[in-house]
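thread from #wetlab-drylab

HS: before we spend reagent money on co-crystallization trials with S-adenosylmethionine, can we at least see a predicted complex? here's what I'd submit
DV: go for it
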Amino acid sequence: MTQNLLEPVLTPDGWELLNSLGPYSEADSLRLSSQLRDAGHSPEVVAAALTQSRLRAKAQAKFGPFAARMLFTPDGLEQATRLTVAARHAQRYVSAGLSRVADLGCGIGADSMALATLEREVTAVELDETTAAAATMNLLPWSNATVLNADACTVDLSEYDGVWLDPARRTVSSSGSKRLFDPEAFSPPLSFVEGLAETGMPLGVKLGPAIPHESVPENCEAQWVSVDGDVAEVVLWFNTLRRENVRRGALLIRADGAAELTSNTDFGHDDDAPLGPVEGYLYEPDGAIIRSGLVADVARQLDGHLIDPKIAYVCAPGLVETPFARAYRILEVLPYNVKALKSWVKANGIGVLDIKKRGTSVTPEELRKQLLAGSNRSGNKAVHKGMLVLTRIGEDRIAVVVDPV
Ligand SMILES: C[S@@+](CC[C@H](N)C(=O)[O-])C[C@H]1O[C@@H](n2cnc3c(N)ncnc32)[C@H](O)[C@@H]1O
């Protein structure tokens, strides 16, 4: 099906039509489709051009203005690395002095675009023919990039001094595509990647951030990356792409810059984290910090402590500016008990309630409804905003009243 969606825009009429379309509007698409067919374009060309136009609009979030010149498949766009992150992957190859890079499973070519921009000689290998066609078009501006429609596992790598892999982590079946969590079910599988790393080839492999720490091979650096607070990926870096004295790290990318916390200790070193009471300020670490097991390191940086060894909240006596966690001022600590919380809502005239949680199975939406039921009936009372953090210390569930800082 994707074949038919891309081929018609690769004809002169289709290409010209696609590039003549204005900004995509879902509401206008039906009307525009019949208008274009009335103007003499074939239904296949119109459907394909409008699909690309819709995908280009969606792709702006990952590719900014470049999206307007690119081609996509729906899956290719969903799996593509956003350019700000791809640029950082590519920078590693530059820093390591690697100039000929094979991108094994290049998708629509986002990582290859970044590598080519940083003047690496890139061979982008893609098994799926339609996706390879999209990558070919996307990489056209770079004479130092070539696309190969082939199985990555069969490519002769003797000419390359670095490899990038972003294995497919979904299977597509008649019931749609679903995420895979077994690294051996990825394509290419993690064992292929590890085999390649064992030959000494400098390589980076992007995986889903939920990979269990036990599945992270011993001989690599694992770097979790979040973008605007959402954890996007973990990359395992092997051989000369691995930084000295870094076993794991959390790179936080935001519009105004990036911050990174690294550790040269192995996973599991959080076990000796300092523990203490719920008081002062509560800090909620970024997801990349949590995934990389660096919560205890953040606690130490803040002169703080964990409140429970298994819960990723940090408390500290003072307010410390940090890129690694969001801070909340602790106002009150209540037992988790609906009756007590309802009294608190009533006594404080709470009409708008934010609920965060960690380590409890409570559904915040349901609890919010329960707590606010009837709270706004008093008419002329001012409606206050409140925020609760539900968590536990051992088996004791607590509700912490906080104020975002
Ligand atoms: C997650 S996507 C890559 C996305 C890419 N890094 C980007 O940013 O656009 C993985 C791609 O690998 C391709 N693939 C899977 N197995 C492959 C293989 N054995 N050889 C070549 N490509 C393969 C899939 O078709 C898919 O397009």
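DV: Residues 76, 79-81, 105-111, 125-128, 131, 151-153, 166, 168, 187-188 surround S-adenosylmethionine (CB under 6 Å).
HS: ok that's useful, forwarding to the group
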